């Protein structure tokens, strides 16, 4: 799908150039989005909408009505920092052109039953996948990793990256080494996106939130309103995610670029209480804790209390993989970036604090993870000079 710029002339002769997506909505879709009042208002335009717009299924659950008649006269134009909307009349009747943007995405996403139906389906997906595997592992930690990797590319100086866009669906981001192994959870979530019509970027981040909570973690503050990119042109350069072979300076470079501080770096690292490293995706192998499906502060306890040594062998053979550390049992592992948290005094004080106070860790993790999931997302302001976008639109429609 592509975007086109349509120049429309208003009654006074001025020209408005509006970015109108080449997606369309039928009257039925508009009715579903805005309710019966909208349907009644638009009833007289039913025939014109049938002629002027083709009903297409949009990947984000909504799109724009495209004016395809000619010689339209603009009768009203609404413009704000978040939206542009044109009301036009022509020989076939009334047409409304919407520009897809963050505020419309937020309004439509808010109508989805996130905490009811969507959460229930994600939990069922996690349970079904765990049963299918039958080895005690869970897809939950991988969903958390998906949420982290789609969000952790944000650059506050360049003002790009982050979860908005869900560019990992496209080349080149899909092929970045750091994202190996994430095509599987993305594929698992696709049926839910098709079912509910939310943006992939909202779905991925919400699934990460649910995975944390279902693992016994804290409630992660979250809100919808992210939009999806049309292609990979907005993918950010490779190398923005943490390199597990590096140390403290690298961690600060990566996370400070996003606007995160030392305390948030350590709190987010506590997510390693869950999950495994896999040879075929990262080159590392093993879990961080003995309960990799559960959220806890066990990661910090093990960092402090265990004796960690470089891994020498694996399944009776010389270990030829990258440097990683193992505990006295040889069953658990830590990465160089994990060990850096104990080697750096500013990081270590938070490791100790979280080891001693699980409630503090949970509180700080929830705040940091929520912040991470929202980095770079242009959420609409609730109020504008003319009220909220929805209020402005209803006022213009006389609802």
From TrEMBL:
PROSITE patterns for the chain: PEROXIDASE_1, PEROXIDASE_2, PEROXIDASE_4
Family membership: Belongs to the peroxidase family.
Region (Disordered), start-end ranges: 221-241
GO MF annotation list: heme binding; metal ion binding; peroxidase activity
UniProt-listed GO biological process terms: cellular response to oxidative stress; hydrogen peroxide catabolic process; response to reactive oxygen species
Keywords of this entry: Heme, Iron, Metal-binding, Oxidoreductase, Peroxidase
Protein name: Cytochrome c peroxidase
Domain Plant heme peroxidase family profile: from-to ranges: 186-399
Protein source organism: Nannochloropsis gaditana
